[in-house]
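Exercise 7. Predict the joint structure of the components listed below.
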Amino acid sequence: MLRMQYMWKYKALYFISIPGILFFLLFKYVPLFGTVIAFQNYNLFTGFKGSPWVGLAHFKRMFSHYDFLRILGNTLILGIYDMVFAFTAPIVLALLLNEVRLAFYKKIVQTIIYAPHFLSWVIVSGIFVGVLSPSSGVVNTIIGWFGMEPIYFLGEDSYIRTILVSSGLWRDIGWGTIIYLAALAGINPDLYEAAEMDGASRWRQTLAITLPALLPVITILFLLKIGDFLDYGFERVFVFQNPLNLQNSEILDTYIYKAGLKQMQYSYATAIGLFKSVVGLTLLSIANFMSKKATGESLY
Amino acid sequence: MSRKLFHIFNYSFLTLLGLMMFLPFMNVIAQSLSSAGAIDRGEVMFWPVEFTTRYYEYVFDDVSIWRAFSVTVYITVMGTLINLIMTASLAYPLSRQEYVGRTYILIFVLMTMIFSAPLIPQFILMREVGLVNTLWALMLPTAISAFNLFVLRSFFAQIPHELIDSSRIDGCSELRTLWSIVLPLSKPALATVGIFYSVTNWNKYMDALYYINDVKKYPLQVKLRQMLITDDLTDTGNLAFEAASQSVQGVQMAVILVATIPIIMVYPFLQRYFIKGMMIGSIKS
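Solution:
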């Protein structure tokens, strides 16, 4: 009773929060429950109630489909590449930036390397397509100086993965350093002084002080990344895709778009989407469990 | 000695990296200002060759580019306004001790960061509520980002509660307190979050691809993408486009710059705020 009176006293606070709560209910939770259509033959005109239940038929179809396994493979390979390069590069770069003593130089470098993060993937792809163009691109001009034939980088399956990974690095490597630099700035300088006294080299200090101090941040970011392992990013891949490199560049997200919205196979595309979320969640739980055991750091 | 060697390596490496970030921009600018012949012969590196502004003239004369540009400006201004109002109005109650059950609401929001619905159920919802093919489809479903909500909430929570209590004693209503005490004190946080939101709105492409099929409602990124893939269609492509420009690549580079310049212009303001914003955000997790 007392509680109700208390809440009534601050009714305005509750009132203000209603639109926000409704937003999450409608745009986040309703579609989450809408995922049940993965187990139906969903028909846009008859809706949830009028569509027949088909159990796991769409999942069976998914796994028996030759294309699906190739696409899943592409998604996994790109995910692994990205984990190896895009995850570690900002850590190394932050360590290097941290060694720079000239403040103005550091500031200039940071300003330049953060900037590409704010460009859309459409623009990034435009810049890459321009720079890599076989007839007029700067890269092929330079290749020409060495007497080699121009390469149509985007027109072949063999280059597309490299292009996807390196465009991601180009856009986000600088941005990724921010959080590590913040963690580095928080390390107590006394530690380095003490190590200096004990005769530890800079390299030794990096191994014994800097890296352990970064470990919690690295672990948390790694766990977040694992959860998104199959979410390679629709936009990034889609803007680089063309019929010539499709074999190696089709991933789950672009396939869901094509099968779902273009060919209107609603239930099938939802089943793939659900599969993707479940895999992501499973990976996250496993990694979280292992990390809790090994380092004591965990997301939950 | 090895220390010195490391520094030489480090400075050269970082300079090289900086150049790799910066030179592609220079190349884009140079090509957008060079003659078609020079571009085709591959002579254009980082400085214009046979200077011309014809591609920009073509871009500024194209009605459909202007239309896409104005759609983008509209969703950036209106969308960011909606973002800020919606985010602040949920972040403020969640930052107050008096709001009983705020942990439940926080978990309710956090859950949406872990579990997100696949594309098709989202599309079906948008269709059911009649947002498909309206500009609302680009603004409403992204009204609150959970990350920005947490940033703003942490900032509001730092405001001393004595200040809020005293304004209550002076007879201010909750809304009045929010409007004349809390929001003015939170200008830096609102600026950070607002800038993040406006960059997202400016760059919106995927949502438009999913939900908009009326050419007149295409935002700039979709229009830009269409112009970029014209390259593949040069034999069958737009004849007017060919004749007006003679260099597809030159036009493409000019459009890229038209779509980038607004972001480059806010970048200096942006940089001052986003690092602070990232820090607040990271303390939370």
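Discussion. Chain B touches chain A through 96 residues (CB under 8 Å).
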